[in-house]
Amino acid sequence: MSGRAQLMWDDAVTGYDFGDSHPMDPVRLALTMGLVRAFGLDRAVDVVAAKAAGDSTLRLVHRSDYVAAVRAASADPRAADQKYGIGTTDDPAFAGMHEVSALIAGQSVAAAEAVWRGEAGHAVNFSGGLHHAMPGGAAGFCIYNDPALAIARLLELGAERVAYVDVDVHHGDGVQAAFWEDPRVLTVSLHEHPRTLFPQTGWPEETGAGAGEGGAVNVALPAGTGDAGWLRAFHAVVPELLADFRPQVVVTQHGADTHFEDPLAHLAVSLDAQRAVMAACHDLAHEYADGRWVALGGGGYAVVDVVPRSWTHLVGIAAHAPVDPESVIPSSWRDEVYARTRQLGPARMTDGRTPSWKAWEDGYDPADRLDQAVLATRRAAFPLRGLLT
Asked: Which residues are tagged catalytic?
């Protein structure tokens, strides 16, 4: 297996653009790649531009009539058929939508192929992580579900156990739905509670069905959860599940919208805690999957202050060249930020936090809301996998 990581990047992914008033501003992608370059991380990885996913690949997850509808709306946005979730407020149709969505999907699929074949130890596609798209419809700013497509491609190549860990603030509903009855895939999602956030799914009781029963695990976190609770929940659930499942590949989704500055959600997580979870996912991939790790982006709507720093840390960790949180951000990148956005960029790669958490093994408080959330998950899902609650 190659020691070098791959970073999937094509400038054309910044064409994934729902319009000036939409919160998913593609400047977040351009600024992230700019920051990666400013720290020299593009020299620590192999930067690869993969081909767009073709129809046969898209059909591993998506219905052919949906792909046809996206293609039609891409050619003429006025023809968007809203029964497929396109042409809506969340997912406006735009010219070239099919092509750029397929391009982003192609980066994630190629990342999975490279890791499975041993061409790269780790692979990152921070333009991906579009986890809400369903087999027959767009949802939540997501047209094609690249994490599900990457996993489906791994299964097609012969993988028998793939673990998907999603730490976006929103439930990874589309990926869960794609593998709801498939025992070869374990999906784990940590997210804000569905009572207070889109897509109103991801309850602990959602655990899979049929042969896949016990294959979906959901941790629904109370609004306001900060670093200590977020990290406690992650470590109380994810390592034990992966130790039991023994995945051959770990696919992770790192939406940056858990951050306390994010305008669309209500968790209070710092950049430093996000970095700690990235490092934990990296370590778990090495411990249980021979290092096979595919890491994706996702949500994140503080497009200057948070997203570029978060995903640059992700690239650094995958490259085995982690960026010191105390690093001063190069002035060249801050100049780029101002030129693109007329905003002042952040000065350092940290929020100044030192994340810590209390281990679950040290006991829990049944009256604590965070501990109640973890207990609900463990009681619903763990017995189905033969694990103690």
From this structure: 132
